[in-house]
Amino acid sequence: MLNTPTPELLEQLRQIVGPVGALDQPEDIAPYLVDHRKIFRGATPLVLRPDSTDQISQILTLCHANRIGIVPVGGNTSYCGGATPSSSGNEIVLSLSRLKRIRHVDIDNNTLTVEAGCVLAAVQQAAEAVNRLFPLSLGSEGSCQIGGNLSTNAGGTAVLRYGMARDLVLGLEVVLPDGQILNDLSDLRKNNTGYDLRNLFIGAEGTLGIITAATLKLYPLPHTYITALVAVNDPATAVELLSYLRSSGSDTLTTFELIPRIGMDLVCKHIAGIHDPFEDTHPWYVLLEATSTQCTDQLTEELSTLLVHAQDNHLVRDVLLAQNSTQRDFFWRIRESIPEAQTRAGGSIKHDVSVSISDLPKFIEEGSALCQHIAPEGVLVIYGHLGDGSLHFNINTPDAGAHPDFFAKKASLNHTIHELAHHFRGSISAEHGIGQLKRDELATFKHPVAMQVMQAIKQALDPQGIMNPGKVLSVD
């Protein structure tokens, strides 16, 4: 059982970070008490904003000794309530926003060492400034922080080519629950000296320690972008198209995003400046992008030839190739505006699931039928990262009304989609993490032995249970 911080302890914590680093007025702490989707609301007596790893070490040492819960928060863009304190009011919120230094750039080694509070867009810009690419790319990259990206093992739109967040990390600096600093900011690509401690903390959502800095992989900066919006008949054809492009030697594919007709309709209706770029309507679309480090027209010619051949073989209904950066940005805006358009259209029950790419069409078919049976009034908005096997499988209200009867079916819809993903040997969380939203379902769908191992790791590193209590694993 965690303790309630005393006034004396709160004052000690304030002294560690100084007046600038401590927030305790209601209007100042309010933004830290609600999650990005406004599903969870909590309470805290104090928000700490340390500006160094040493200060975080002091904070955790004190909280560990007094058994006080700590909730780390980055950009607060979590979809699963992973950075929201409980309603008990006993937990201290620790913001990483002031740890935003670029510590080191090594061009020859293609690495970049940054602190956890760096906004993702700033990390991308730091890489670009030395003619390199940091490929993690998300819709929230202007506000999310790299520490949160790593703590949730973020995905995004470039996983097809570069992998998840954990694939982009060489080393970490982490403050452990008892205040010890694990300095493992390795920049090595080969290092077989025992357990891979780095991967314990990536994806752990702050339940095992606080990531304070990371050494990240950089890549050559692309100079040629080929972006196409492709109309297809159905998800099965989209999977065939992906397989065809990859088997035809097109190893330059970076993005392969599935967009349904309803997604196109929603953004055209609710987002200013967006219109359907095709003359005819189509049931499904794919946004695909290929990149090259060379300044050449060869990639355009190769991809154009492949798409023409795909169209001749009925894999493609129509193709639009972006002719310039303005058109490329327009195509991307269609894809990136779907979440905002959904919100403007009404309420939504969201799922972030993954199955193997080959199973995606069947999953969409069966999942759609199950949802329509449970909530026939719902509007299915199924889109996302087909290239890596993950989908945002969402069900919208028919309009912007309250629809309490629809939301009363939320638990049933969630369980149905997650059970189906489990049936297909998939995951109930492709890229958004577990937080508190999916904590109980994790215990249901994760293999019992895997849960035992996770609990054992938690007990070994955080026996007091102070780190982000109630997230990922249930509190005993």
**Would you identify the regions where 5 or more consecutive residues have pLDDT less than 50?**
none
Q: What's the β-strand tally?
A: 19
The mean pLDDT is: 95
β content, as a range? 15-25%
Strand order, sheet with most strands: 5-6-10-8-9
Task: Summarize the amount of helix as a percent range.
Answer: 25-40%
Cα shape:
globular
* Rg from Cα: 23 Å
How many helices does DSSP assign? 17
Query: How would you characterize the largest beta sheet?
Result: 5 strands, antiparallel
Structural class: alpha+beta
End-to-end Cα distance, whole Å, is: 8 Å
Walk me through what this model shows.
The protein is an alpha+beta fold. It contains 17 helices and 19 strands. The chain has helices at 7-17, 26-29, 53-66, 120-128, 146-151, 159-162, 198-201, 235-247, 261-270, 298-312, 325-336, 338-345, 360-374, 404-407, 410-423, 439-445, 448-461; strands at residues 22-23, 47-48, 70-73, 92-95, 102-106, 111-115, 132-133, 169-175, 181-184, 210-217, 219-220, 224-232, 253-260, 284-292, 318-321, 348-349, 352-354, 379-383, 390-396. It has a five-stranded antiparallel beta sheet. A hairpin with a 6-residue loop joins strand 18 (379-383) and strand 19. Helix 13 (360-374) runs antiparallel to helix 15 (410-423). 45% of the residues are buried. The mean pLDDT is 95.
Summarize the structure.
The N and C termini lie close together (8 Å). This protein is of the alpha+beta class.
Characteristics of this structure?
globular; four-stranded mixed β-sheet; 476 residues; 17 helices; five-stranded antiparallel β-sheet; 19 strands; alpha+beta
